[in-house]
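Researcher: Quick sanity check before group meeting.
Model: Go ahead. Protein one:
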Amino acid sequence: MDNQWKEYCAQYDKSDESQRQSLRAALSDSQRPVFDAAWAEYQASPPPPPLRDTFQYKPPDEQVAFLKTYRKSSMLKRRSMLKDYTKEERANFDEAYRAHQAPEKRKMAIVGVIAFLGFAVVMNKSDNTVHTPPSPQPEVGRQGAYTPNPNHARHQILKRDSINRDTVHRVRVRIYEPLKEADLSKIGKAIKRASPGFERYYIFFHYKGPGDGAAYATTHFDPDFKVDIFDKDGSMGL
């Protein structure tokens, strides 16, 4: 059956009885036997399968809307949207979705490169910045070797140790000028507060020398607090 007779049979099939009579009357005597044979063949052939409601059969505007909905959906929703697709229909959709995603991926890649370059510039500036470390500040409880009067401090912790199963705490302190009993008392009590938990405290103050010779003064908690100044004129430890 050629396409001309197939189309005529399809039109005949959709018509009511009066329209069918008009269609038969329009045929010549020689055409009617040909039509009757074509009509019998048309009726015997199986009807074409209905179009499936899948992506490839949708109009272009509905395809775009379907892709946007799919992109914003959860994985569970996506599986539901494609659950009735055949293998061929799924492959067709995957190809269309990759093409739909391509501009967005390019945009994200450009943004990523720009962000990386900005971070690299910031890090480069940071690496080239000269950082001046802060000058050491004297503090109670800080141990260190002798340095000549850092930042005009009045004292500096030289050494500390604990003896007799941590019941006695000994501290050696550098002072940079002869101090009065009241000043030595304040420093000694501050050192004790900074290291609580001992029964006795022996604090030795050294003036000028390396800190391993005779002490200028002491503030001991044995256990009662007592201040002794042995070098009234500051001549020891030269």
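Researcher: Fine. The other one?
Model: Protein two, sequence then structure:
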Amino acid sequence: MTKRIYKESRKYIKRGWVVHPLHPPDANVTTPGKQPIIKGWQKLDLPSINWLHKHFRYTNNNIGIVCGEKSKLTIIDVDSVTFLPELFFNTKIDTLRSERTKGRGHYYFKYVDGLESKPYKMFGFELLNDGRQVVAPPSTHKSGQKYRFIDETKELQKMPIKQISRNIEVLMERYELLNNVIKECRFWLQNIWKDHMKKHQPNIHSEEVLLAIGAELKANGGTEADMHMFCKIMIPPHMEGTKYVGYDPKYVTAKWRYVRADRSHKMTTLFKTFPIHLQPYLIGESNDNDKLKKINTDNVIVQIKPKYANVFRQMMLKLNLEAINKGTLKRERVTTSILKQLNDHY
């Protein structure tokens, strides 16, 4: 691989692309395979052959390309194909493209002067321009996957920036409409939404979960379009074993037909539907590295983060339930009547 990366690095500088070394995929750094080795890499210019030889010929380094004016490159970094139809709506994209796995890759365009580098993580893409860099083929991801060009003979296309900018505006408008609906919803859905970029989310494809979320949205003025936007963001395409799965618009539409605005779920039901996700939101964010204390509820084990004990105590005092004694959680059975009070309070 070292010879191949060295060979490709020479091709890249012939195209006028400023390259720089990245830590190997097995390096003990924050982001192995992606993290630049050279400080101030943003200020590098086209390197010499000797410089390439030093950094790529006899090393295991990955290779990065400096985006923006330096290389006359603007990149769209795509982590999910879910919103690509909206991003590229009314455009014809036929430019150089790389990928390392299905649905994740980079679209290479001619440099767009003045375009701000900006992440749109909720939509699964990011604009990379001045001050940013991209991992280039034939680098290796920490997972072992290889970066490669789909068709290396493709020329760089001029980005249809006016249309793409308008498409992003439309996406943001729809996103804000959904945000406004969620602000009117009860705390449990608000907090799931706030954490939507984190892992360990509820299985949105579960019929029970989907109906609970749909009812909450509809009860607060949400539309089917809001439900689709919610699910598209919450269910990005991913691999389950050997199968590639993700947001299914037909499934969401079918379930929306059964959602009733006057049937939003009670807290007694929600505690059983979201046994892991709901309770931590009552007391703050959870962290996999933190030890969690436990108490019993009706058929549900509730995990409590120790540093949120005071918040939990205040909540229980409000409900006239003594659950903490001298800072230590007791094992208490939270009855249906207490859950009903939670429904009234939250």
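Researcher: One line on it for the slide.
Model: The CA atoms of residues 31 and 291 lie 26 Å apart.
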